[in-house]
Every structure is written in C-alpha cells, then in structure tokens.
Amino acid sequence: MNKVMLNTAVFLTEMNDGQSQINLLKNLTQPIDGFEVRGEFFKDDKADELHQLMTLAQEKSYSFYYSIPEILFTNGELNEHLAEHFRIASEYKIDSLKISLGVVNLPTPEQVTVLNNLIKVTGVNLTIENEPNPNGTIEHLVDVCRTLTELGFLGGYTFDAGNWYWINEDPIAAMNALAKYTTVLHLKNIHNQETTLLDTGDTDWQALCAKVTDSTPIILEYQINPADLADELNKLKQYLKVS
Known about the structure:
Blueprint: E1 4-7, H1 12-16, H2 21-26, E2 34-38, H3 46-60, E3 63-74, E4 77-78, H4 82-91, E5 96-102, H5 109-122, E6 125-129, H6 138-150, E7 156-160, H7 171-178, E8 182-187, E9 189-191, E10 194-196, H8 205-211, E11 218-220, H9 226-240
Parallel strand pairs: 1-2, 1-11, 2-3, 3-5, 5-6, 6-7, 7-8, 8-11
Antiparallel strand pairs: 3-4, 9-10
C-alpha cells in the first residue's frame, strides 16, 4: 500500500513567515504516513529541531525523509559532504535522504561503490531526483537510472512530477520512461509554470500514480493553503483507496 506523505513545501508560506518545520508538523491534524523535511528551512537550532523531528516520527510511527538542498554530482564528482549528511541521518533516525542529480555524464562503478557503502554502513536510503534544467531531461535520466541499476545501486530515484515543465518535457512521457526506476513520487500539478491544486493543473496526476508500484511512497510537495490541505490529502487517498 502506498504511503501518503507530506514534504514541508506544503507549508511554504508559513515557513517563509518564520514558523519551524517541527511546529508545523506537530500541529498537523490530518493523518499521514510520514514527512520529508527540507534542509534549507532549518534555523540555527538545527540539531534540536532534528531531535524533535526524530521524536515526532517515532511517536507517530511516521516515515522520516530529508531533502538535501545540494546536488549529488558537480562536474562528474561526488558531493564532498555526503558522508556528513549520512552521519546526521543515522544519528537522527532519518529513513531516507533525497538529493538532486547535478552534473554528471554517467556514474562510475567506483562512485556507486561509495554510495552503496554509505547506505550499507548507516542503514539510510538515498534517492536521486530529476532537476528542472538540462541535466534533468528524460533521455539523460533514463541513461543515469539504467547505469545505476546495472552497477547495483542500492538507493532509488525520486520522480518529481513538476520539474519537467521547466524544461518543456511531458511528465506523462517521463513517467512512462522512468516508472520502472521510480521509488518515490513527488506529486504536484502545474499550470503556466506555477504549482496548483491537484485538480486544477495540466497534469493527469492519477495517471502518474497509476504507473508506480503500490509500495512507492507518494509525497505531496507544493505550497497548499491550510484550508485546502485536508481536501488535497483526501483526493490522493481516495484515488489510492487508502485511509
């Protein structure tokens, strides 16, 4: 059964007004299966907030994901901060890290060995996300995901449903090409390069959900007014036939 989760981007307005991710999640009344926090929205008390998030996740039996505001590859070289991100994730019982692909032709066997070792040593998963730039085209993502699979990568791929619009590619075509590699779905809808509520954008979001396995977490990742949040979650849950 698909887990239904929230990325804290749903609280973008509130976070820009200074509210913390932990307080927003603590005050959430709608039932969810987990959350994904964003590294760029932590304040000076990051360690304390991570500890509180870990406690909340344990108390509520939530899945705890973390979005790293960096890229995995710079000019073909692995991010030098990866080990530290994995250390923090292990310390605070984070289940999975997500990072944008960045700039690479194709990953090498040696680089996949480094990534796999970090995953194995810490027990923390890693997923790579498509970006809204020339490094995130369908063709390139297929090549990268195929290579990672062939090299035995232990992590996965986060399919961002909205980023295709910024590079003039079709999200349905992208999903058709990448569904077999997709382990997390960042669900959103877009109109005129602006996020919208699920039923008012240009994407057939149900078609995207239908392409992923029933074990794929689906994460709402777009700003939602508080008055609309319950309805958006219910739309997704009703389609998935989950409570």
